[in-house]
Design a protein that fits this description.
Elements lengths: L23 E8 L3 H12 L4 E5 L12 E3 H9 L3 H7 L1 E3 L1 E6 L2 E7 L11 E3 L2 H17 L4 E5 L2 E7 L4 E7 L2 E12 L6 H5 L4 E16 L8 E5 L8 E6 L4 E7 L6 H4 L2 H12 L6 E15 L3 E2 L2 E3 L5 E2 L7 H21 L8 H25 L4 H14 L47 E2 L2 E2 H5 L4 E5 L6 E4 L2 E8 L8 H6 L6 E5 L5 E5 L4 H11 L4
Parallel strand pairs: 1-2, 1-11, 2-8, 5-13, 11-18, 22-24
Antiparallel strand pairs: 3-7, 4-7, 5-6, 9-10, 10-11, 12-15, 12-16, 13-14, 14-15, 16-19, 17-18, 20-21, 22-25, 23-24, 25-26
Helix pairs in contact: 1-4, 1-8, 2-3, 8-9
Length: 536
């Protein structure tokens, strides 16, 4: 059995802050060293922002927990400098199959088009994910980046002020007080930070429970997502199977609402359920077992003054659809460039209001899709079950019915339609790259577009003229000039031009489209930059 989650990765060490005569002020403190907190810290440190991560633990998460990481978060991780090791270790997959009772009714491909650097998904245990992030922190520290992780530093109290946040921190050597200009709370679904500020979730808790079991076994199942409705081994319920690295398989089994959770987690009750699914002759070992309840909830706001919430501390969705960690990584991707600009004085503090607007939209999208998945997976009436089963039967033979099957709409990035940072669309181009959209990847010879965009403001010109660089109110916009001739597959044209013959895109640091036109027009682009930075 893998013991990585038993090894301290950021063991407690005394900090000079503990003996300082007055509280030390830091630029940013991140509370929580899970995937979202570490990603936020890395993002800020790469931009030169001094950041301290506080975590009450000193090691990676116990159990695999989040395992499915989608294409867009992998692209974000590439910019954070740790995407490749995760893809190398992870199990890459694009295919899925849906079963009803004892028969396969159809299969699907989540990335049916070519020309992307990253796959639709990888499966990777959360403890590996966190390990790679910690290793990236160590790399940055070796390069002199201003980033620090403090293990066994538990935040016990929070005091908010107009120009800073004060934290009381408990350690094995006693407590100390520290201050920060800004605090990012990434301390999980149970978020003590949220409780200390007197905030709560709004939303739904669904009346159902699911058993998660990570099983170590040799099995010849393909590298696909398999989902069963009403399988013979779990009648009247559902089941899910995923492959992970190191011969670990994730199995989810629906249990129903009225159960004794502690009793159901005991090996003597889990193992018979798994044998019913896998067969008595399959040898396996339990690595981790948990039970979860579907919850689709969020905070009413994600920002409260100088405390900003991200990831599960801000919102919760059911695990089916892989929306938790994936949406949390998009939270920090949206937040960090804005926070950096505000701290530098190149954008007004009101720019952070757009984090609330855009990521609440993202959370609401996830909650809507997750709620619909839950209602389909767990019908609440006999009539709902009859309708669902009829859809499943039709899907076996008729393609039109398959989009109605909802075994967990899988994670997709949010398009920020209506964002205050968007300029009016001035290109009759593809809908997928309209303002507010995340940039889709595209091949450029032996390279890919997203790798060239980087993590700053970019003026992407496709067969169009423009200045090589624009300076405006402290913001630098660099030009990336490409041509449809750079891509013989014509995917660049299909994704960014459509019927147009040229295009100019203003791309934000999080690689979302802020504006697009068919040609460069100085005044329009300057207004688009001001709008994208919250100044207009």
């Amino acid at each position: 059995m893998n013991k990585i989650f038993e090894t301290p990765l950021y063991a407690f060490e005394s900090s000079p802050d503990q003996s300082a005569p007055t509280p030390v002020r830091h630029k940013v403190i991140v509370v929580g060293a899970g995937p979202i907190g570490l990603a936020a810290a890395i993002d800020l440190a790469q931009q030169g922002v001094e950041v301290v991560v506080l975590d009450e633990n000193d090691k990676v998460s116990f159990g695999s927990r989040a395992i499915c990481f989608a294409k867009r978060p992998l692209e974000i991780l590439d910019r954070l400098g740790c995407g490749q090791p995760m893809v190398d270790k992870g199990v890459v997959w694009n295919q899925g199959k849906v079963f009803f009772d004892d028969r396969k009714i159809y299969e699907f491909n989540l990335l049916p088009e070519d020309g992307h650097k990253r796959p639709a998904f990888i499966n990777l245990q959360q403890y590996y994910f966190e390990q790679f992030l910690v290793e990236r922190v160590r790399e940055l520290q070796a390069q002199g980046a201003p980033i620090e992780i403090r293990g066994r530093n538990k935040v016990e109290a929070v005091g908010t002020h107009p120009d800073h946040v004060k934290l009381e921190v408990e350690t094995p050597e006693g407590s100390y007080t520290v201050e920060a200009d800004w605090v990012i709370a990434c301390d999980g679904a149970g978020s003590p930070m949220r409780a200390m500020l007197g905030k709560d979730f709004v939303g739904r808790v669904f009346e159902d429970n699911f058993l998660i079991a990570d099983v170590v076994m040799d099995a010849d199942f393909p590298t696909e997502r398999w989902f069963w409705f009403d399988p013979p081994f779990n009648k009247g319920q559902s089941a899910l199977l995923h492959k992970q690295p190191d011969g670990v398989w994730r199995i989810d089994l629906q249990l129903g609402w009225d159960i004794d959770k502690e009793r159901e987690k005991r090996p003597e009750n889990v193992i018979p359920r798994l044998k019913a699914m896998l067969g008595d002759d399959v040898e396996f070992e339990l690595e981790w077992v948990s039970i979860y309840t579907f919850q689709c909830r969020r905070m009413e706001q994600f920002r409260y003054g100088r405390v900003i919430f991200a990831g599960d501390s801000a919102h919760q969705v059911s695990p089916f659809g892989a929306r938790g960690a994936n949406s949390g990584l998009q939270d920090t991707d949206n937040l960090c460039w804005k926070l950096k600009m505000v701290m530098d004085g190149t954008a007004p503090e009101s720019l952070l209001d757009s984090y609330d607007v855009e990521r609440i939209q993202g959370a609401d999208e996830n909650i809507l899709n997750s709620s619909r998945s839950t209602d389909f997976i767990t019908p609440k009436s006999q009539m709902s079950r009859l309708l669902r089963d009829a859809v499943l039967d039709l899907s076996e033979h008729y393609e039109f019915a398959r989009p109605l099957v909802n075994s967990g709409r899988l994670s997709l990035p949010c398009t920020y339609d209506g964002s205050p940072l968007n300029s009016a669309d001035a290109l009759n181009g593809p809908a997928r790259t309209r303002p507010g959209s995340p940039c889709p990847d595209a091949p450029l010879g032996d390279e890919f577009l997203l790798s060239k965009l980087g993590d700053g403001f970019v003026l992407l010109t496709i067969d169009a003229d423009a200045p090589d660089e624009i300076e405006l109110d402290g913001v630098t916009v660099k030009r990336l000039a490409v041509s449809v001739k750079d891509d013989p597959t014509m995917e660049l044209k299909r994704r960014y031009l459509g019927d147009a013959t040229s295009a100019v895109y203003l791309i934000r640091p999080d690689q979302h489209v802020a504006a697009r036109r068919d040609s460069y027009e100085e005044n329009a682009i300057r207004h688009a930059v001001l709008r994208a930075t919250g100044k207009e």
